[in-house]
Amino acid sequence: MRLTTADLQKRLNPEHSKRLPFGLTMVMALIAGAIFIFALAPYGIWPVALLSPAILYALLLPEMTGRRAFFIGHAYGTGLFSVGAFWLYTSIHVYGNTPVWLALILIALMGLGMGLFHGFLALIFNRLVGKQPLSFAALWVLQEWMKTWLFTGFPWLFVGYAFTEQYWLSSLAPIAGVFAVSFVAVLLAASLVELLRRRAGYLIVSVVLLVISTALWLINPQWTKPKGTPNLSVSLIQGNIPQDLKWLTEFQVETLNIYATLTSTEWGRDIILWPESSIPMFQTDAWGFINEMVKIANETNTTWVTGIPYKDEAAFDPSVDKYPPFYNSVIALGTEAEGLYKKQRLVPFGEYIPFEGMLDILPDLAGSQEIMSYSRGSEQQLPLQVRGHNLGSAVCYEVAYPDTTRKNAIGTDFLLTISNDAWFGTSAGPLQHLQMVQMRALENGRWFMRATNTGVTAIIDHQGRIIERAPQFERTVLRGEIQARVGHTPFMRGGHYPILLIITLLLLLSYLGKRATANHK
Predict the structure, then answer these.
(1) Which residues are catalytic?
(2) 263-298: per-residue pLDDT in tens?
(3) Which strands form 466-469's sheet, in the order they lie side by side?
(4) What domains, with CATH codes, occur in the chain?
(5) What element of type H or E holds 170?
(6) Cα dist. 102→92, 270, 291, 352 in Å?
(7) What is the pLDDT of residues 73-128, one digit of tens each?
């Protein structure tokens, strides 16, 4: 059956929608959240990023109780994360040796937990602020921002990422970051619902913002500029080491041989970059191999940058500590190279145990096994020094944090990110991860080198465009050039503060407007 515009207007009209059974409304919200995955990589159907939040907006009716609004929002968020982050199933079941049924339950519990963000969004929208597109978009950005820090953060599945390569909207990213892109997209989505309800006023605001972003795209302001030095030749090494073998002691020598062999034809390039933990042992156990690589690097005028677990024995106090602190790190060695970067944002339960110190009150549990966690690197770290340039770093998961990457990018000429996405197999996870790197390049106006174990290894320019890309799940080398750039985008200077200030003002005005309207009734 074909729906006419009149049919859609009728179905989106509050008087009609309130007659929908609540169970059906919940299912619609769950599906609306679940389909959002098609807006992101690898599918890239960006209109879904408008449709998905538009459905949630249409379902949150003015006459609805706060309790019902919360459950509808929670259903949306549960669908969003249970499906959108289903790539976690591979690491939980395949590499965590968790039974299928338990892995599915854990994914569902994760979805229910993350769904609370949208649940409270819907509750606040229903009870505290005016029910209109501006407040809805502001609350949407607020919950996305909270995902970057609350309970250590899980900053995934943001609406703005769907528009990474839609330059008519992504032109806002260098100005105010991914949240500005999310805000305009969600505002447009909600405004289109109001248009179908024959209330077109809010669409004007959306159109104005779209015109501004499109004008920026057409003008193409260069927030950063080339440093004026020759481009650097780079070789990114993709070892494609199976995850179930990577950390086996008996496979360590084979891993080193694989990377050394792949690199043997690349000496003489300006920079050779190895992925996260490509040396699968502490530097104290690999000095012989490291010294051999450094010798070749110096002889061939090459900078060698690699991921490696780094044990800081100088900081070890046996009277206080059980073992020396150790870090997931990047080290620069060879010609014109200096520096060590220690990862700041660690993966909960993967790289550290949250509230580990509380285990001390349970001596039987704490003593049953030795629990060792990576330590966090300081937020005040100097960039790597590479061939007369400052090189900013982001290790794996932490590139998903816009503000962490922004701070690491200040004062640098280009950026690197290294990762091991083998944990997530052939799922959408690694491709979503790559899309985030593209957004970080846009926000900071810097080129990125991205070296990974199994893919996606890529070179990305300052406008978020993939210049070179290696195939996934192949043992290969990606060769290319990178450009050093200087200057600061507005986002690098102001971070999230401008967009957070705007949404705070919008929510305050919406709250005051709602109270004033209520007092006049």
Answers:
(1) 276, 343, 396
(2) 999 999 999 999 999 999 999 999 999 999 999 999
(3) 337-338, 384-386, 389-395, 414-419, 448-452, 458-460, 466-469
(4) 5-221+496-519 (no CATH), 225-488 (3.60.110.10)
(5) helix 167-170
(6) 9, 48, 45, 22
(7) 999 999 999 999 998 888 888 877 789 999 999 999 999 999 999 999 999 999 99
